[in-house]
Amino acid sequence: MTADPTPQKRALRAELRERRRNLTQTERTEAADGLTAGLVALVERLGVRTLSCYLSTVDEPNTRPFVNWAREQGLRVLFPITRADGLLDWTTATDQDEEVVGLFGMPEAVGELLGPIAINEADLILVPAAAVDSGGMRLGWGRGYYDKTLGSMERCPPVYGVLFDSELLDEVPAERHDQRVDGVVTPARTVEFAARDRHHRRI
Predict the structure, then answer these.
(1) What is the CATH number of the domain that holds 126?
(2) Tell me, what's the pLDDT at 2?
């Protein structure tokens, strides 16, 4: 690994983004079914009542069927709202059809803003990722929102990355501020890693 992994990160993100764009609609549908089953099983196993999730873009693993299931079960779902100061705000949207485009062109839920500290109420945090390696290191998309959020939490619940199967890699380039995840959920499987340095809150 070079002293400055930024060029490696940029190249890997571009490769992974292109792979996602080349998936067929059949592959996307099958992936969504498998991912939803894996996320439901994880939530039920952990006894989660409040979780954070995000609204996926067209090219990302589809989180929307899972979000709909969670709402039907009466679970509280926190959605991230990007802020210009680099922090994430949160909302619990009640209208699943209402969305806006966020600061960086990503879909975001519409609802009352709860402030950055609302994430401390979550029993489980589901995060987007370009890739995760075999040690749990997450490669995000370069904005740093989740790294900053996770790194600032005093007592963090379990954090799982949401990926396509091919995006669980042997190693990803990382910098000091990058945050590891406790596991990943892909359409085919759920993988858990060794305990992280973060102080975890039991649920």
Answers:
(1) 3.40.50.10420
(2) 43
